[in-house]
Design goal:
The chain is of the alpha/beta class. Helices cover about 30% and strands about 30% of the residues. It has one domain: Transcription elongation factor, GreA/GreB, C-terminal domain (Chitinase A, domain 3), CATH 3.10.50.30. The longest helix is centred in the N-terminal third of the chain and has 17 residues.
Length: about 140
């Protein structure tokens, strides 16, 4: 089993967000339960101690979508900042919740829009913790 790293600031915000989301979402939110379980097992560290190759909130990273052969750059954001047209993926979306805590080189298999999606994290373009720009 992989070790999921998350900052103490992000874990607090995400737990509050998950509590609200589970109350108000009417569709299937199994992925939120999985995210909640992963947060409970995660290694919580201070922002300055998070490895620089880990996908954290507000990280921008390049992935390779293995099933279609496409490369894309995404940013993992809180729901209010999500914008599909700008490849800003909400952490509460199934694909977004699957990305949190993965590292460069990792293979991610997740369900997205009724299909299984396989992606490999190729590069960290920007991680706010690595640059000292922590909210």
């Amino acid at each position: 089993m992989r070790t999921m790293f998350i900052t103490n600031a992000d874990v607090g915000r995400l737990k509050l967000l998950l509590g609200s989301a589970k109350q108000f979402l009417t569709k299937n939110h199994t992925h939120l339960q999985v995210l909640e379980e992963e947060l409970a097992r995660a290694e919580v560290v201070s922002p300055e101690n998070i490895p620089p190759d880990v996908i954290t909130m507000n990280s921008q990273f390049r992935i390779h979508e293995l099933d279609v052969g496409r490369h894309a750059v995404y940013t993992l954001v809180f729901p209010g900042y999500a914008d599909v047209a700008k490849n800003k993926i909400s952490v509460l979306a199934p694909f977004g919740s699957a990305l949190l805590g993965y590292r460069v080189g990792d293979l991610i298999v997740c369900a997205a829009r009724g299909a299984t999606k396989r992606v490999r994290v190729k590069e960290m373009v920007y991680q706010p913790n690595a640059t000292g720009q922590v909210a």
